[in-house]
């Protein structure tokens, strides 16, 4: 995938391809708008990118299901083609690249050498350390060795998905492969977590684009997630929120409340404790998001979502809250009687939110165990 | 009442040249009978951004798609801003329409994709929106191309 033109600026490359500055400004403006970035970011993004060479990007896949790459390839703004051909030089991605075997590994080694200290490392999947790393190997090397080697020359690491961010499904009890998130193995590089199972495609490309544009790690929350995309709960931005405030809840998936679009809290929706952009950016080019399709949020962008009980138990009766920070008993005390009274629900949700902020410096289960 | 300036004066018509001045009246056709607090907030923000443009030459923009505007709010905003003298369109992977409103320096900008879908809608506060200007590197490349064509045309057959 390396075109050998990484010295050319994006602007020069666009000019060669007959893509006008106006088209580029329009694209950047639309991208900033789609990603809910401040409007000044569009022209600033265009100016910065035009005068910069395409940064080298290396994408490593470890213990994962490829759902994150499936998500990435469905990004609408910017599209993955646009991203690859115009803004980045994707020098290694064993799922997307045409090369295989030695040719692929040689491309990765060359990119790491040529762009040492400058490339962006994307990691998808958790890192299994059990059985000497035998659960996940590529080219005869364990995932852990590959990660440690690639991390050395990276300007920053972007963890794509909940597995590389927090351990994910492989980390679930009893964690048979000894899986860890990237942050438990690499401690000396800036790490940006783009969690979700899978993460939203526009959040992956938007985070990458923002980093490429500014050269800076964006403002992150206590889980190292970009605040611009993870600053609000699903519940805060949910179109069903007015029903929650009125105490109108669906009791089953096919009752009158469900048909009227009432709040799915009592059916297990984890929107009040889940930070993500699904309710604003939405999926499939802005078509909808799970709650709009009638199913509650399962909280897939939160650490430990895999070990917190049923997706269909309401928050007040589930061991939810924040892994390692809010004990189930605290959640239960805060939410006592909440399922019956809408006002009490609001107080409980605010209480969990306050606890979350109070413990903002603490790390997740996976991050703590591994550090 | 000992001086002329002590006499109370009430202006009942528009100010005329050389006559007594009142606060500047809105341009004819502008309707500022705004009922939505959201629209009022946008207009107040535009006034602040216009000051910034006039005093420091810093352009700015408001992303209309990021605001919770109802269709009524949108209609009210359009009526409040009105249509100005300039309208331009850019054909670049879909049509972009740029209309200056009756508030000088405020442009209503719509970007559409190749399928006609609205992909961005902004109020730009600028002397001229950035997208309309020709780029320096493209001008230089165009000059080079033009000279090449001229040299080819000048060659004897």
Sequence-ordered SSE layout with sheet pairings:
The complex is a heterodimer of chains A (371) and B (157).
Chain A: H1 10-16, H2 21-34, H3 41-50, E1 56-61, H4 67-72, H5 80-87, E2 89-93, H6 101-114, E3 119-124, E4 127-128, E5 137-138, E6 141-142, H7 143-152, E7 154-160, H8 162-166, H9 168-171, E8 179-180, E9 191-194, H10 201-214, H11 227-230, H12 241-245, H13 256-259, H14 328-334, H15 342-358, H16 365-370
Parallel strand pairs in A: 1-2, 1-3, 3-7, 7-9
Antiparallel strand pairs in A: 4-8, 5-6
Chain B: H1 37-56, E1 60-63, H2 71-81, E2 87-91, E3 95-100, E4 106-112, E5 118-125, H3 136-154
Antiparallel strand pairs in B: 1-5, 2-3, 3-4, 4-5
Helix pairs in contact in B: 1-2
Show unreliable segments of chain B. Answer: 11-29
User: What characteristic shape of chain B results from the CA principal axes?
Assistant: elongated
Mean pLDDT of chain B: 81
> Main β-sheet of chain B, in a few words?
5 strands, antiparallel
What pair of chains forms the biggest interface? A-B, 22 and 23 residues
CATH topology assignment of the domain at 33-131 in chain B: Ribosomal Protein S8, Chain: A, domain 1
Q: How many domains in all of chain A?
A: 2
Task: Give the CATH level 1 class of the domain at 33-131 in chain B.
Answer: Alpha Beta
Report the helical percentage of chain B. Answer: 25-40%
* Count of helical regions of chain B: 3
Helix-strand string of chain A: HHHEHHEHEEEEHEHHEEHHHHHHH
Strand order of the largest sheet of chain A: 2-1-3-7-9
The biggest beta sheet of chain A is recorded as:
5 strands, parallel
Query: Rough shape of chain A?
Result: globular
CATH architecture of the largest domain in chain A: 3-Layer(aba) Sandwich
Distance between the termini of chain A: 35 Å
Give the overall pLDDT of chain A as a whole number: 81
């Amino acid at each position: 995938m390396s075109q050998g033109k990484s010295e050319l600026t994006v602007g020069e490359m666009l000019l060669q391809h007959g893509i006008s500055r106006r088209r580029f400004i329009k694209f950047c403006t639309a991208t900033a708008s789609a990603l809910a970035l401040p409007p000044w970011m569009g022209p600033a993004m265009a100016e910065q990118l035009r005068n910069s060479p395409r940064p080298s990007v290396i994408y490593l896949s470890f213990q994962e299901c490829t759902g994150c790459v499936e998500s990435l390839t469905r990004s609408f703004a910017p599209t993955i083609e646009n991203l690859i051909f115009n803004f980045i030089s994707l020098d290694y991605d064993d799922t997307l690249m045409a090369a295989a075997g030695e040719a692929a590994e040689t491309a990765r080694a060359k990119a790491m050498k040529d762009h040492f200290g400058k490339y962006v490392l994307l990691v998808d999947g958790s890192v299994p350390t059990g059985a000497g790393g035998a659960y996940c190997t590529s080219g005869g090397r364990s995932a852990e060795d590959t990660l440690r080697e690639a991390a050395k020359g990276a300007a920053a690491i972007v963890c794509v998905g909940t597995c590389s961010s927090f351990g994910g499904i492989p980390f679930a009890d009893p964690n048979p492969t000894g899986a860890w998130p990237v942050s438990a193995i690499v401690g000396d590089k800036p790490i940006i977590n783009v969690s979700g199972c899978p993460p939203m495609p526009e959040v992956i490309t938007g985070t990458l684009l923002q980093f490429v544009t500014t050269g800076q790690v964006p403002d992150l929350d206590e889980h190292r997630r970009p605040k611009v995309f993870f600053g609000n709960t699903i519940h805060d931005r949910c179109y069903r929120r007015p029903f929650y405030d009125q105490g109108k809840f669906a009791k089953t998936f096919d009752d009158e409340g469900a048909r009227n679009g009432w709040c799915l809290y009592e059916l297990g929706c984890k929107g009040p404790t889940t930070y993500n952009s699904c309710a604003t950016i939405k999926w499939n080019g802005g078509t909808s998001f799970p709650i709009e399709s009638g199913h509650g949020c399962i909280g897939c962008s939160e650490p430990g979502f895999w070990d917190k009980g049923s997706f269909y138990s309401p928050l007040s009766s589930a061991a939810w809250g924040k892994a390692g920070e809010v004990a189930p008993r605290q959640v239960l005390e805060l939410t006592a009687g909440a399922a019956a009274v809408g006002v009490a629900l609001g107080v409980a949700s605010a209480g969990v939110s306050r606890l979350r902020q109070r413990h903002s410096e603490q790390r997740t289960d996976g991050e703590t165990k591994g550090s | 009442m000992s001086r002329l300036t002590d006499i109370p004066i009430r202006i009942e018509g528009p100010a005329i040249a050389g006559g007594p001045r009142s606060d500047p009246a809105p341009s004819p056709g502008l309707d500022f009978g705004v009922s939505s607090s959201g629209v009022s907030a946008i207009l107040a923000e535009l006034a602040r951004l216009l000051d910034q443009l006039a005093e420091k030459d810093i352009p700015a923009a408001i992303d209309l798609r990021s605001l919770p505007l109802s269709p009524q709010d949108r209609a009210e905003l359009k009526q409040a801003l009105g249509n100005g003298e300039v309208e331009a369109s850019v054909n670049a992977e879909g049509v972009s329409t740029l209309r200056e409103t009756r508030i000088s320096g405020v442009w209503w900008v719509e970007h559409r994709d190749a399928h006609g879908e609205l992909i961005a809608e902004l109020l730009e506060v600028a002397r001229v929106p950035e997208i309309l200007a020709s780029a320096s590197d493209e001008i230089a490349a165009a000059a080079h191309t033009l000279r090449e064509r001229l040299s080819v045309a000048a060659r004897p057959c």
